[in-house]
Amino acid sequence: MSTFQRPATVSDIARPTKTITAARPLERAQLVWRRAVTLSDDSEERDPFEVTLDLLRTAHHGPSTMLHALAYGRTKMGKRPDDPVVRKAVHLLEETIAWLGREVDESEVGSVTNDTT
Predict the structure, then answer these.
(1) 71 inside domain
(2) What are 62-92's pLDDT values in tens digits?
């Protein structure tokens, strides 16, 4: 005599104990920072106006977003001060902000200084 086995159902299949969540989307300033890194790591020489326009478009022409990206970049530069790509990306953001007519103040949040006092 053979024994009958019923087919597996959804309730018989082990379910994961944790729900899988999608990665949180990046903030606009993080996207601007990543674009600045990409542009500074590029071996191709670009027109400074094109670089400025590219970063402004990525920031949706928001000066506060540009400043936020610069603060983010300065934080990265503080962690990796010898990385030439990070330094160039920060420089590109500073130039873009200056082009907007906004002076970059070294005492702003996210600035990196060597002064320990």
Answers:
(1) yes
(2) 989 999 999 999 999 999 999 999 999 999 9
